[in-house]
Amino acid sequence: MARLRHETHTAYSEAASMRLRAAWLYYNQGLTQKDVAERLGLSRSTVIRLLDEAMKRSEVQIWISEGIDTCVELAIRLEKAYGLDEAVVVPAPRDSSAAALASSV
User: Fold this and answer.
1) Among 23, 30, 46, 89, which is disulfide-ready with 71 (CB 3.0 to 4.6 Å)?
2) DSSP per-residue codes, 42-57
3) Each residue of 8-59: pLDDT tens digit?
4) Domains located in the chain, CATH noted
5) 50, 23 in Cβ contact below 8 A?
């Protein structure tokens, strides 16, 4: 039976912990890569590498909510129809109070 040396296991745990901390701060807390780097005492390029590695290891998974596909499809059709560089279409709010708030801003 193979055993991990304690030092190897600790190094792996520290690397995994740093990757997950960076991913949590970036994706869940909404910090910029620069802010994550400052918070963790790392360079921005290291944060980018950690986020990429977390994605490759499926520690971070991103999916697009159902229903947004129609917005993307409509945006593409508008771009083609009117020769736009970019069109952005967003779904309507689910409740009317959010719609009223958005229209009053």
Assistant:
1) 89
2) --HHHHHHHHHHHHHT
3) 455 568 889 999 999 999 999 999 999 999 999 999 999 999 999 999 999 9
4) 6-56 (1.10.10.10), 68-104 (no CATH)
5) yes
